[in-house]
Each structure stands twice: as structure tokens, then as C-alpha cells.
Amino acid sequence: MSPAALQRQAALAAAALLAVLLVLALGRSGEKSSAAPPGPVSQAAWETATVGIFGRSQLGETTACGTLLTEQTVGVAHPVLPCGVDLVVAYRGREVRTEVVEQGGVGPEGRFDLTPGLAAELGIRKPATIRWRFAG
To answer: What are the tens digits of pLDDT across the range 121-133?
Structure first.
């Protein structure tokens, strides 16, 4: 065999060995590590709040969030949260998914106010303490 042929075979053998080592290294990086996997993302925590009812005098008007306020509108007014933020509110075993439909203007009763439609759906007729959380 000529010296050029031997040199070519040695180069091919080295390239094959390098490819095998690369496959083995990549295969091991895909194996599961012994470290514990991250835990599941936790659900939003429930909080309590005293709420009032707003909007009876504003029926037929458009809120700051652009929502037409009717007896059937289901939403909350909040002084800080932006329009459209999804929430879940609960009262005496009833849970309702809702959203912020009005900003500011929260009465002295609590942290936020419910629309008449949401208050009716929850069975609330006067200021009450509810549970609430961010929907997710």
C-alpha cells in the first residue's frame, strides 16, 4: 500500500472515531440528570377581600374599560388592575370567572366592587367578604 493510501485511511479512521465520540457525547447530554425535576407551576393563591356593588346608577353607560354596563354585565371594578385582567371570585361555594371591566371608583366597602350582574350570580346583595384569585 502506498504511503498516500495509508495516510488517507488513517484520516478516515480518525474522522470515524471523532464522529462516534460526538454521537456518544450528544447522547449523554440528552439523558436525564440525577437532579430532581422542577416542581409544577403552582396555582394562583386565593385571597380574601371585602367587596361592594357598583354601577346601579351607571346602567346603560360605558365603563372606563369600554364595557357597556347592563344588569347582566359580569365584572369587577379595581383601582389598580388593568382592564381585562381575568379573575376568579368565589362566595359561599359559587365560583365565577370574570374580568376587570372598570378602573378606579371603588367604594368605601372594600378592595374592589362587583357589577350588579356578578353580585347577583354570586348571591351577594350587600358588602361581603369573598375569595378571589387571578385566573390561570
So the answer is: 999 999 999 999 9
Instruction: Report CA 2 to chain centroid distance, whole Å.
Output: 70
Question: CA end-to-end span of the chain, whole Å?
Answer: 72
Query: What's the farthest any 2 CA atoms get from each other in the chain?
Result: 102
Confirm if 84 and 131 have CB atoms less than 8 A apart: no
Q: Rounded CA gap, 17 and 68, in Å?
A: 72
Residues counted in the chain: 136
What the block records as the C-alpha cell of 100 is 376587570
Q: What are phi and psi of 57, to 5 degrees?
A: -80, -10
What nine digits make up the cell of 36? 430532581
pTM over 0.85: no
Q: What is the pLDDT of residues 42-83, one digit of tens each?
A: 568 999 999 999 877 888 999 999 999 999 999 999 999 999
Q: What's the CA dihedral at 47, 108, 101, 61 to 10 degrees?
A: 160
**49 and 129 in contact (C-beta within 8 Å)?**
yes
